[in-house]
Design a protein that fits this description.
By secondary structure, the protein is mostly beta strands. The chain contains 3 helices and 27 strands. β15 and β16 form a beta hairpin.
Length: about 450
């Protein structure tokens, strides 16, 4: 069962909530088409095909000639069949972080659909959770088949026609009631994701300016999303050693304040100076770096701080060994306050197996910097990192695949999902997002 939840969002996130059939282009307001499923389990093992019963009900007062059935899934779920009267498309990965839905199927089914009648999809539709699935979403909608609706639903994304059998709608026998339908819901798949952090080691003369770069990474195998909770996936907290002054923090990171802790945030560890929230999506094998410009204090010697990653919703992270790492600052004798040569940075601590960031794990510099983390969206994480280039500040230079995929050159999940799907919830046009009652 769903509850209409009204939020405000910028145009970039309008696709989070499909415009209802009654408001679609070139569709009469009296048209009411209900399309959904009735027998899909909400919890299922990955890579196990589920055969779903999908039903269309014409709840309007007029007959409808031809319908478009739309299926949309997030990254971990997919429809396995390729019906000949359906078009299959995938959202470009550089915008999936603000759009949420990854795959779309549009099926064009001719025929006349009578008011008050119900029609089952034949054959049943098969869905499966992929290896990366953990918490995924399925949404279905139905529209009158008109040229305007086809153009609007197709958008600018290229699609591929199916080559299998035709998807059809068969009328239920008279007197047989239509099943209770769900058309917008979350599915859970047993899986884990390993969130980790890597610390830093810096050395310089007293009073010098240096850069310390800490790192957050998801080692997979699952991608994790918290958009439906309007929440950040996790928080990266940084505790610098006493006497070290932060000259410049990455965009999206803010001064930690225990009095303004967001509901989804973990309790601040003693001494934490800065908090950097991730986005509401974290891809499998995603990596984010946070470069801080520091001024070393006058006390000569070696001091340690720490970096942590945590959330109130991290039951999927069964490996706690790499959720903390050291920040080591070595201050030598008095030197130039401009930094000079005293600013080398190397990584320290551990984030589990190093691996590579793959084609989908980067973070950009976009994001908003909030003065507190009291409300979701006021402090979307930015950071500064590359994939397909070099990253300084870790224990080595890491090279990934050229970034034409998930984050492209537009930024990261933190920047895109954070600013696009969380911070922008407070701006722009009103959007209705149906959320399943838990």
């Amino acid at each position: 069962m769903r509850i209409p939840f009204t939020v405000f969002a910028a145009a970039a996130v309008l696709t989070l909530s499909a415009v209802g059939p009654a408001h679609a282009a070139d569709q009469p307001t009296e048209v009411r088409l209900d399309f959904g499923w009735s027998d899909l389990p909400k919890n299922s093992a990955r890579n196990v095909v589920q055969h779903g019963r999908f039903t269309l009900v014409n709840e309007g007062q007029n007959a409808v000639d031809g319908v478009i059935l739309q299926f949309r899934t997030t990254r971990g779920m997919e429809l396995t069949q390729r019906f000949s009267n359906c078009e299959y498309s995938t959202t470009p990965e550089d915008i999936v972080k603000v759009q949420a839905y990854h795959s779309k199927v549009l099926c064009f089914v001719p025929g006349t659909y009578e008011p008050g009648a119900a029609y089952d999809v034949v054959p049943k539709v098969d869905l499966v959770g992929r290896d990366i699935a953990y918490k995924d979403w399925l949404r279905t909608d139905a529209y009158v088949d008109t040229p305007a609706n086809r153009a609007k639903l197709r958008g600018e994304t290229s699609a591929v026609n199916g080559t299998g059998p035709e998807l059809k709608l068969e009328k239920l026998p008279q007197g047989q009631p239509a099943p209770k339908l769900d058309s917008d819901d979350e599915f859970r798949f047993p899986n884990t994701a390993d969130l980790s952090v890597k610390g830093a080691r810096v050395e310089g003369a007293a009073g010098a300016s240096v850069q310390a770069t800490v790192e957050f990474r998801n080692l997979g195998p699952a991608w994790v999303s918290e958009l439906w909770r309007y929440s950040h996936v996790a928080y990266v907290d940084i505790d610098f050693p006493e006497g070290v002054k932060v000259l410049k923090a990455p965009k999206g990171c803010f001064v930690a304040d225990p009095n303004t802790t967001a509901l989804d945030a973990p309790k601040l560890e003693p001494g934490v100076d800065y908090r950097c929230p991730t986005g509401s999506f974290v891809m499998e094998n995603e990596k984010t770096t946070y470069p801080f410009e520091l001024k070393l204090g006058s006390r000569v010697g070696t001091a340690k701080g720490a970096v942590y990653v945590g959330s109130r919703y991290m039951s999927y992270d069964t490996n706690q060994q790499n959720n903390r790492a050291d920040i080591v600052v070595k201050t030598t004798g008095q030197g130039s306050t401009t930094g000079g040569s005293g600013g080398t940075t190397t990584g320290t601590g551990t984030s589990g197996s190093s691996g590579t960031s793959g084609s989908s794990g980067t973070t950009g510099t976009s994001g908003t910097s909030g003065s507190s983390g009291s409300s979701v969206g006021t402090a979307a994480t930015g950071g500064s990192t590359t994939t397909g280039g070099t990253v300084t500040g870790g224990d080595s230079t890491t090279s990934g695949s050229a970034q034409g995929g998930i984050l492209a050159s537009t930024g990261s999940s933190a920047a895109l999902a954070g600013t696009g799907a969380l911070a922008l919830l407070a701006a722009g046009a009103g959007v209705r997002l149906a959320v399943r009652r838990r």
